[in-house]
Amino acid sequence: NSLSGLLLADVSGDGRADLLFSQVKSKRHVLYVKEAKAGEGFSEWPENYTLTK
Question: 24: Cβ–Cβ under 8 A, 6 or more apart, which residues?
Answer without folding.
Answer: 1, 2, 4, 30
